[in-house]
Write a structure and sequence with these properties.
Layout (H helix, E strand, L loop, with lengths): L6 E6 L23 H6 L9 E6 L11 H13 L5 E5 L5 H10 L9 E4 L12 H13 L8 E5 L2 E3 L5 E2 L8 E2 L7 E4 L2 E4 L25 E5 L7 H7 L9 E6 L7 H14 L5 E5 L19 E2 L5 H13 L4 H10 L1
Parallel strand pairs: 1-2, 1-3, 3-4, 4-5, 11-12, 12-13, 13-14
Antiparallel strand pairs: 5-6, 6-9, 7-8, 9-10
Helix pairs in contact: 3-7, 5-6
Protein name: asparaginase
Pfam family, one: Asparaginase
EC number: 3.5.1.1
Length: 339
């Protein structure tokens, strides 16, 4: 007796995977132009794997997919429905790491159904388009029994990754993504899903977003990158802000393991003293990978929360959700340092 087909909700956030261009070898194309269902149904045999429900949340390029509440709210509803077994989210790759981190770290305890992110580096109209294969592999992973218990995963170029240790390391190549310090957790070999170890959740800050209603953007968090000769001009402006529409926190992308020069470091400490616990400051690094976790960071002392293995983009989205939840600086620090 054949197994019952599972039902997968496919949420489209636009991007290259549903992009279309006039020339097959041109880098110029319109992201989010094609309906995800049209792209999906063009993939041989994929329709026989499961039943599918399609929803388009965004139809633009990935830099404009900032409605985190809508994404989490839609996933919440899919998790609550008894007739849906798994969820696939297709998105533009420029923000794929941030979006998957938001879902991974913002997941609620009741979310038990697999969530699989995927995207494409080439539009459907391009030569050797990678989107159809990535969608095929995402379906295989979504319906595989071995995916359950892993929370949120991502599938690109036949490799399986686990956010938040999932980063875009190249702007152009098809194999643009890596698993950072964790590496890939598995591969899709032809039609077989191979995980390298049993189900496990990643160690990362857990910040389930409380308010999933409406479309208000998450609080403004500024990311400041360190560089040789940094003068700290933006830091001065942040210290003087007043009123309701102000920056609510700071994410630092420091040199090496989070280091800053003396001048900028002093201004960061002054900013911390001026804005207090209601203005959390999290220290990360500008390198692609690495750990920021020393109790005393060069140039900053112990004035900042440390991001651990999270890069600036991942740590910023976690910080945004924590501030939106109304967490104070000590609670934010406990969650980052506890991970």
């Amino acid at each position: 007796m054949s197994a019952k087909k599972r039902t997968v909700a496919l949420l489209s956030l636009g991007g290259t995977i549903v992009g279309s261009g006039a020339a097959s070898t041109s880098a110029a194309y319109d992201p989010g132009k094609l309906p995800i269902k049209d792209v999906f149904t063009s993939i041989p045999e994929v329709g026989d794997m499961a039943h599918f429900e399609f929803q388009t949340l965004f139809d633009k390029g990935s830099p404009d997919n900032a409605n985190i509440r809508l994404l989490l709210r839609t996933i919440q509803r899919c998790q609550e429905r008894a007739d849906i077994d798994a969820i696939i989210v297709s998105s533009g790759t420029d923000t794929l790491s941030e979006l998957s981190t938001a879902v991974c770290c913002g997941a609620h305890d009741a979310w038990t159904k697999p969530i699989v992110f995927t995207g494409a580096m080439r539009p459907v109209t391009g030569l050797s388009a990678d989107g159809p294969r990535n969608l095929h592999d995402a379906v295989k992973v979504a319906i595989d029994d071995g995916t359950r218990g892993r929370g949120t995963v991502a599938v690109m170029n036949s490799e399986i990754f686990q956010p938040p240790f999932f980063i875009k390391a190249d702007a152009n190549k098809v194999d643009a993504f890596t698993g950072g310090e964790a590496g890939p957790i598995g591969r899709v070999e032809s039609d077989v899903v191979n995980f390298f170890w049993g189900p496990a959740q990643p160690k990362c800050p857990r910040v389930p977003l409380k308010n999933l209603d409406g479309d208000d953007p998450l609080p403004w968090i500024h990311i400041e990158y360190s560089y040789l000769g940094h003068e700290g001009i933006t830091l001065d402006r942040l210290a003087k802000q007043e009123g309701p529409d102000v920056c609510r926190g700071l994410l630092l992308a420091g040199m090496g393991a989070g280091c800053w020069n003396e001048k900028a470091g002093n201004k960061i400490r002054e900013l911390h003293a001026a804005r207090g616990a209601e203005f959390p400051i999290v220290a990360s690094r500008r390198t692609a990978t690495g750990f920021v976790g020393m109790a005393d960071i060069y140039g900053l002392g112990d004035s900042c929360t440390r991001a651990g293995y999270l890069g600036p983009e991942q740590a910023a989205i976690v910080l945004q959700m924590a501030v939106d939840n109304g967490w104070d600086g000590e609670k934010i620090k406990a969650h980052f340092h506890g991970a």
